Recover the amino acids of this structure.
């Protein structure tokens, strides 16, 4: 964008939710832009990042909102006794909205979102956001897009990376090695996938979101949920019964 459109354009990312019809964090033209960070919390929104004990943390954790907003729903349609609503947003922390994002507040007071909390990878007990892996993979011109999921393996979790290649490229040992090296360099050895496999397409919802949980369920032999929400569900067959995932 800076190269091809305008060198001093205000390029900003946002994050919020359909259910609140709003954002929790967003851009601000009066603040500096730092690479990889959403600039600030939105006005009037008491955003924080909690650890597993419900305490503010300077490390990665759960993105929460500690105050109510006029646009927050008071319930879901036909949700008896608000059970689905409560379980979705208030089950993890009492009286505190949990957005379901794995995030961190930086020293610049910006926010980095590493992916969905329920799609967080956990090899060796270390929580890893999928966005950390994607940022490194996206530097390879050979790969159009990718999806990283956790496979249950020998009483632990191992990372499996599925990649959709650009036309004219093939997933050979050289490319696999390059991808692993770049992920290790950009993140850590814990982030390096145990397996990198090629697929022709990445499943997405009708709104364009990659369905990491559906792929995770499939490769772990579990029944995937909400298949009717997937726009290109026919590609899911490529993730089933992969012989490469048996060793």
């Amino acid at each position: 964008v800076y190269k091809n459109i305008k060198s001093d354009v205000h390029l900003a990312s946002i994050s919020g939710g359909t259910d609140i019809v709003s954002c929790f964090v967003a851009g601000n033209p009066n603040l500096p832009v730092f690479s990889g960070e959403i600039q600030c919390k939105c006005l009037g929104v008491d955003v924080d990042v909690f650890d597993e004990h419900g305490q503010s943390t300077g490390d990665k954790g759960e993105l929460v909102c500690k105050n109510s907003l006029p646009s927050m729903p008071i319930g879901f349609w036909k949700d008896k006794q608000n059970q689905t609503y409560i379980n979705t947003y208030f089950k993890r922390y009492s009286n505190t909205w949990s957005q379901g994002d794995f995030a961190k507040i930086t020293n610049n007071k910006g926010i980095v979102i590493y992916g969905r909390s329920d799609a967080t990878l956990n090899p060796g007990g270390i929580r890893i956001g999928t966005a950390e892996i994607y940022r490194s993979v996206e530097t390879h011109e050979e790969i159009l897009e990718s999806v990283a999921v956790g496979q249950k393996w020998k009483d632990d979790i191992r990372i499996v990376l599925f990649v959709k290649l650009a036309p004219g490229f093939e997933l050979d040992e050289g490319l696999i090695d390059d991808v692993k090296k770049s992920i290790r360099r950009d993140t850590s050895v814990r982030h390096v996938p145990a397996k990198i496999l090629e697929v022709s397409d990445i499943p997405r919802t009708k709104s364009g979101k990659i369905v990491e949980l559906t792929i995770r369920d499939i490769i772990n032999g579990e029944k995937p949920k909400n298949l009717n929400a997937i726009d290109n569900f026919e590609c899911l067959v490529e993730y089933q019964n992969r012989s490469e995932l048996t060793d």
User: Anything to note?
Assistant: Helices lie at 83-89, 130-137, 173-186, 212-219.
